[in-house]
Design a protein that fits this description.
This protein is α/β, with parallel strands linked by helices. The chain is built from ten helices and ten strands.
């Protein structure tokens, strides 16, 4: 396990402690759960282009090929979100994709709904949580215990409103997707598009958050969401539905980098 104090000394990370109400098998505990995050611009840099797998049951070889091509094109983080896969298949995916992400210097996150103690969790950089894996003030049960033992884990939360973002940010989580920004098949009839204005409001209310725009993102609207205040974008179809995922990723990354430069983003 990484020594968080050494990383802190190098100003790579900062620790955020918060007291939270956790419920473990119907036993209530008050605990101080330390979460450690990449700092400021460093965290934002890692989520410039965040790829989420499309959960369509692709053969492992095909999934690996698309992810690696996307990484070659400039993807900076990958989330494994194959919700219909078995634990055995998920283990194979983690063991195959994690080292590829490491080779390209990209973060590899596991969707928290897939978390299982039998998975090779030592190979993931962190978790992407959502309402189903989160109590009003903390992650749930065994998941929370796992995070408490790994203060170096990167934590991202999937938010759908400013109120939700503010509530989770108050617990110490600094990176969040906000969605859906535009119309997207996965949320059609479930959630209405928030539009870029929601990003602008979130940026004003949470200036220190890492905000990742998700939902209907394409090359044509990247500049709009970055100008509104997003630090990066998260995509599924924009890469997975393209016949050339490397080129698709490269185009998206170009648009993100160009928009951030225009907005005056300066790395640490």
């Amino acid at each position: 396990m990484l020594d968080a104090r050494k990383l802190l000394h190098g100003n790579w990370l900062h620790a955020v402690k918060y007291r939270s109400f956790l419920t473990f098998h119907k036993v209530s505990l008050i605990t101080s759960l330390p979460l450690v995050f990449l700092t400021g611009n460093m965290l934002r840099e890692r989520f410039r282009l965040y790829l989420i797998t499309d959960d369509t049951g692709r053969p492992l070889r095909e999934l690996i090929a698309i992810v690696e091509a996307a990484l070659q094109g400039g993807v900076t983080a990958v989330q494994l979100r194959e919700k219909h896969a078995s634990v055995t298949d998920l283990s194979r995916m983690v063991e195959s994709i994690a080292p590829i992400c490491k080779r390209y210097g990209a973060l590899f996150l596991l969707n928290a709904a897939l978390w299982h103690p039998s998975l090779p969790l030592d190979q993931v950089d962190g978790l992407h949580l959502q309402a189903s894996t989160w109590f009003p003030s903390s992650p749930k049960g065994a998941l929370a215990r796992w995070l408490a033992e790994r203060p170096q884990a990167v934590v991202v939360y999937s938010a759908h409103s400013l109120e939700e973002m503010s509530r989770v940010f108050a617990t110490g989580v600094r990176a969040m997707t906000i969605s859906p920004i535009y119309l997207t098949p996965s949320k059609d009839g479930i959630l209405s598009p928030l539009g870029p204005a929601a990003i602008n409001v979130a940026r004003r209310e949470l200036p220190n958050a890492t905000i990742i725009a998700l939902g209907g993102i394409a090359c044509e609207n990247v500049a709009e969401v970055i100008a509104a205040g997003a630090d990066g974008i998260a995509v599924i179809r924009a890469i997975f539905a393209d016949s050339n995922p490397e080129v698709a990723a490269r185009r998206l990354r170009h648009e993100v980098d160009l928009a951030l430069t225009t907005a005056g983003w300066v790395p640490e």
